[in-house]
Amino acid sequence: MADDGDGKLRTEGSSDGGLGGAGEPPAGAAAAAAVVGGGEMLLNVGLLALALLAAYRLYLRWGTRSGPGGAARQSQAAALPRMKRRDFSLEQLREFDGARNPRILLAVNGKVFDVTKGSKFYGPEGPYGIFAGRDASRGLATFCLDKDALRDEYDDLSDLNAVQMESVREWEMQFKEKYDYVGRLLKPGEEPSEYTDEEDTKDHTKQE
């Protein structure tokens, strides 16, 4: 084999520069190129199929939410009065998942927030709907949006590392800035606090 000067290889002793005629690769090389080309085509088709599937899932999630049912839920949520301050056990918190109750609550680092006005995110069809009515601390700390991030028992977060706990605290501050803080998430056996109307009004005024 030799290089003919333009980057192509030719067979020594062949007058036409190769077995397949001038400038043409040998039959074996052509077959290999066809296989590679076919592989690239299959890869492109596969990627296109994945993109279409992702687009379809987004349509189902966001399209459903923005449809008549989703709009009705958002309108109903917007009409809800501000929630009075109270504390919640895990069982009580789960009632406020946006499905059984139009109001949506979630807990972060022991604090409970009313995220109803963010129902497009935390409602049943929202991307973070899995956290509605639950303690979202572990999921937010570990960036996990599936059931592995949810605990049916009280989660003291004691196994999280320093970086993850710092992430939880940062999320807590973000929720305090954007949503109403409505009370504490109670530990097992802990008694709820009794909030006066004056305390409730004062805290809500601070948030505004």
UniProtKB/TrEMBL annotation:
Residue ranges, compositional bias (Acidic residues): 191-200
Region described as Disordered: 1-23, 187-208
Keyword field contains Transmembrane helix: yes
Biased composition (Basic and acidic residues): 1-13
Family matches, as SMART domains: Cyt-b5 (SM01117)
One GO CC annotation: endoplasmic reticulum
Domain Cytochrome b5 heme-binding span(s) in chain numbering: 88-186
Superkingdom of origin: Eukaryota
Gene3D superfamilies: Cytochrome b5-like heme/steroid binding domain
This protein's record includes keyword Transmembrane: yes
Pfam families assigned: Cyt-b5 (PF00173)
SUPFAM superfamilies assigned: Cytochrome b5-like heme/steroid binding domain
InterPro entries on file: Cyt_B5-like_heme/steroid-bd (IPR001199), Cyt_B5-like_heme/steroid_sf (IPR036400), MAPR/NEUFC/NENF-like (IPR050577)
Transmembrane segments: 41-59
Keywords (A to Z) from UniProt: Membrane, Transmembrane, Transmembrane helix
Family: Belongs to the cytochrome b5 family. MAPR subfamily.
Protein name: PGRC2 protein
Species, as recorded: Circaetus pectoralis (black-chested snake-eagle)
Lineage: Eukaryota, Metazoa, Chordata, Craniata, Vertebrata
Encoding gene, per UniProt annotation: Pgrmc2
